[in-house]
């Protein structure tokens, strides 16, 4: 990968000032002022900058593939953890720009030594790779002297009605989200970070995803989930500078100075009962979501982005959008104006012993404070959403994602470990 970097020097490690995704996509002035380090890849093979005020992979226009991993830290030495974060940061800065994970790469080192890079991405472009790190509540125990720095917003999630969480695929001390347009590039990045972390961290669980289920930029079309419905029509977008400042990025005023410019990530693996859903009538499916399946318009409206009107009547004289519909319960107007920035992916993990698809949505959402945003929204959905008949939450994660890495002298989470 490294030998091809010179032809892409335009997309260097440093910050840049404009964002363009594909022909004709123009970033607003407000977005540029808010996200000076965000450069959208001009093609699916190009690179996003690594350094900046915020981590890439949050408002970055969502790529098509995901490899997500949660690690347990197996060393109890603070210095070793800090060293690992420094090594990971240096590797991430290289990987996201299309270089090998280490200085000597996959084939440039001594023949009798293990290579610096595993090699399966040799010859591949960066493919829009972003790497985003987060720290789980369990990292803030008494091992590393950071218990007093646990943010109040990183409070453990409550138990939600109906969830059937599997502990082995939930939680974790540290997570890394790798997003790219090429699945091999994303897998390569996680594989090399895990290799670098040998003896200091172990993989707790991981998840592959395909087919983004949200748009994080207005330049992107709204994708569909495995139920066949457009997902994330009213998602926060990178162009919404004021909304992002208010509801996405943590502030020093929130009580944890080291998290200023960061965000809080919630993950939920949601298994869908695909076969039962596929036998449901179109009318029932649309009533459950509150949108039509073809256009994605709110029921009672004609176009996807028409305003949702919960007072609109249907042909039977009843409100077109039911009170137990997904769109009604999740809408900001039903949740005190709270928004989430969703960045989820479809998954298919084969089939179970009865021949049913093990498939669904790997939900990822970023926000300024999960206690005020994700928790009340999910509690309302868990109690009342008609969609619950067809889904099951089996995994959960909560992570504090620190601000971006400013330059080559910085590293992931540096402010957390400073005295």
From TrEMBL:
Residues 55-210 form the Dyp-type peroxidase N-terminal domain. GO terms for molecular function: ferrochelatase activity; heme binding; metal ion binding; peroxidase activity. Binds 1 heme b (iron(II)-protoporphyrin IX) group non-covalently per subunit. Keywords: Heme, Iron, Lyase, Metal-binding, Oxidoreductase, Peroxidase, Signal. Its EC number is 1.11.1.-. One of its GO terms (biological process) is iron import into cell. It is found in: Cell envelope. Its cofactor is heme b. Coiled coil: none annotated. The keyword Iron applies. PANTHER family: DEFERROCHELATASE, DEFERROCHELATASE/PEROXIDASE. Belongs to the DyP-type peroxidase family. This is Deferrochelatase. It comes from Nonomuraea pusilla.
């Amino acid at each position: 990968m490294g030998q091809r970097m010179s032809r892409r020097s335009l997309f260097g490690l440093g910050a840049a000032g404009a964002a363009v995704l594909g022909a004709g996509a123009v970033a607003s002035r407000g977005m540029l002022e808010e996200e000076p380090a965000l450069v959208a890849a001009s093609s699916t093979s190009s690179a996003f900058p690594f350094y900046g005020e915020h981590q890439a992979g949050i408002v970055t226009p969502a790529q098509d593939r995901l490899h997500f991993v949660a690690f347990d830290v197996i060393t109890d030495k603070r210095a070793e953890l800090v060293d690992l974060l420094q090594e990971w940061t240096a590797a991430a800065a290289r990987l996201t720009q299309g270089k090998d994970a280490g200085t000597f790469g996959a084939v440039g080192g001594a023949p009798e030594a293990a290579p610096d890079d595993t090699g399966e991405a040799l010859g591949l472009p960066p493919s829009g790779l972003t790497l985003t790190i987060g720290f789980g509540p369990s990292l803030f125990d008494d091992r590393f002297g950071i218990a007093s720095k646990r943010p109040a917003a990183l409070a453990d999630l409550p138990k939600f009605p109906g969830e059937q969480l599997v502990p082995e695929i939930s939680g974790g001390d540290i997570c890394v989200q790798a997003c790219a347009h090429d699945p091999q590039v994303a897998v390569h990045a996680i594989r090399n970070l895990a290799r670098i972390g040998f003896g200091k961290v172990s993989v707790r669980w991981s998840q592959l995803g395909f087919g983004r289920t949200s748009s994080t930029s207005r330049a992107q079309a709204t994708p569909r989930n495995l139920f066949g419905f457009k997902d994330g029509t009213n998602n926060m977008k990178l162009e919404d500078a004021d909304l992002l400042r208010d509801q996405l990025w943590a502030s020093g005023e929130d009580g944890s100075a080291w998290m200023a410019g960061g965000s809080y990530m919630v993950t939920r693996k949601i298994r869908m009962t695909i076969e039962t859903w596929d036998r449901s009538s179109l009318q029932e499916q649309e009533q459950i979501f509150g949108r039509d399946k073809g256009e994605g318009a709110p029921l009672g409206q004609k176009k996807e982005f028409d305003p949702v009107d919960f007072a609109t009547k249907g042909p039977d004289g009843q409100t077109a959008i039911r009170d137990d519909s997904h769109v009604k319960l999740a809408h900001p107007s039903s949740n005190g104006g709270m928004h989430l920035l969703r960045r989820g992916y479809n998954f298919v993990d084969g089939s179970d012993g009865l021949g049913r698809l093990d498939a669904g949505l790997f939900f990822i959402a970023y926000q300024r404070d999960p206690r005020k945003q994700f928790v009340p929204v999910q509690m309302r959905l868990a109690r009342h959403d008609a969609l619950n008949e067809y889904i099951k939450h089996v995994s959960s994660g909560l992570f504090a994602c620190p601000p971006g890495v400013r330059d080559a002298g910085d590293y992931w989470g540096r402010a957390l470990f400073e005295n």
